[in-house]
Amino acid sequence: MHKVYDYIIVGAGVAGCVLATRLTAQAKTVLLIEAGKDTLPGQEPADILDSYPTSYYNKSYTWPGLKAAWKKIDQGTGNFPQGRVMGGGGSVMGMVSLRGTPEDYSEWVKQGAIGWSWEDVLPFYCKLEQDLNFQNAWHGQTGPIPIRRLERAQWQPLTKAISAYAGSIDMPYIADMNGDFRDGFGSVPMCNTPTRRASTALCYLTAQVRTRSNLTMVHEALVEHIIFEGSKAVGVHVKTKTGLEDYYGAEIIISGGGIFSPSLLMRSGIGDAQLLQQLQIPVLVNRKGVGRNLQNHPILFIGFHLKKHARQSLELRTHPSASMRYSSKLPGTAPGDLYINIQSKTSWNAMGQQIGNLAPCLLRPKSVGHVKIKSSQAEIAPEIEFNFLSEEIDLQRMMMVFTQAVHILEDQSVKSLCGTPFPVRFSDRLRLLNEYTPQNARKANVLATLLNLFPGISDFVLSTLTGDRLDLSALVKNPQDLAEHVRSNIAGMFHPVGSCRMGFESDPGAVVDNQCRVYGVQNLRVIDASVMPNLMAGNTNIPTIMVAEKMADALLNSSV
Prior knowledge:
This protein is an alpha/beta fold. The protein contains 17 helices and 26 strands.
């Protein structure tokens, strides 16, 4: 007889680590399966621990060969880093910890996610966090994840100058962007301490948790498909370092994220029947929503060489310190849909220390894309198409927020801190130069030294390296040229959601119900960012932890 676990969790990413920790706390037997390498407590690599996201530049922590199209597939693809390591994206991404706004969760409810309103999710945000700045009913003090904001006294010169600009246009300072949802300029909440990242791998799956006899972990193991008996999920078929294994569980939980959760469902016969038949995969459930409704945050980049006195101090290990969140107020749009990220350091190396960045982005896009498998083989990367700017209102809003970023850089106080701004095309070539390698460190040191000695050449060198030399002030005055610039340079963050979204069973676009149960089968759930009906006005790491906390509570304390 084979062992049957109470739960098999596929993916030790942001959600999986939370679920494994919470479920085993109440004597449930759990098997946690991760495709990437483990990071043992006390032996974590320095780049993963770093409170600056150095690990983002280490390609060994991400899925190899994964590419995505920001617009349409036939318009080209680029590398799309997704975490393949303990903690998933939470171990490699930027640690910004925005919850989104109450309006975001009202939209969830309207789409069928009953029980996921702001009032419903707030207790679980409080449960996960140890807020180091605010002690009130909006924030938790005893959770595993430390949340902090950089004190204004620690702000870099660029951030201070932009804060003054915001005040000059009557944009208020928002001290708590997770509790005060007005338009304004605010301190960015981060999930770290001054010296250490706070991922779910580090903060939930601790050394003490790992000693629990009811927790079994398997690493460097790729789940090929789910095993069914009729319509009941009973196990998973896994390719491990030593061969193929079948593991069995009373309930299977997929926590692979916005790209890999729908991919596993499709490989297991749940998805659009036409696609599955083309790939000769037996159809178990014809559910067209699997892999559809894929959403992400579109973004543009404007770089500039910071003068010596304007650079971030070497002691400050932080990514962005503050940002601007405000509303387009266009018909049919949610509040807080526009955002400008501010950075005084843009990479781990010596060059990154000299380059600042404004990144205008759209937090509540209307455009949706898809992810679909190209083969029944798990090793073959899926097709990912975000379809950015396919809705005209998204183009309009990206033009608005890009123009606002240019106006910021035209402010005399801001202008005095930096060289000529230039648009950045975040290409695979640029990613290659930023990879975390000794060779790139040497190259960056040479270039940084050169620019320090001859600062007058910085505008030419950097604009040539990262994109085109453009007069941005002239660009934003010409709507036709600006629209073309936005279309040509649009990129995305790494926040894929919605591809297994919650909704009513009668909705063909829904994949799971409000308890994350997959429609058409039994004993199978998806619990991760893919179940979110739409993007929230913020990053997705902390909301994903919230989803896992809420579902763990439901599994342990009710009969769902």
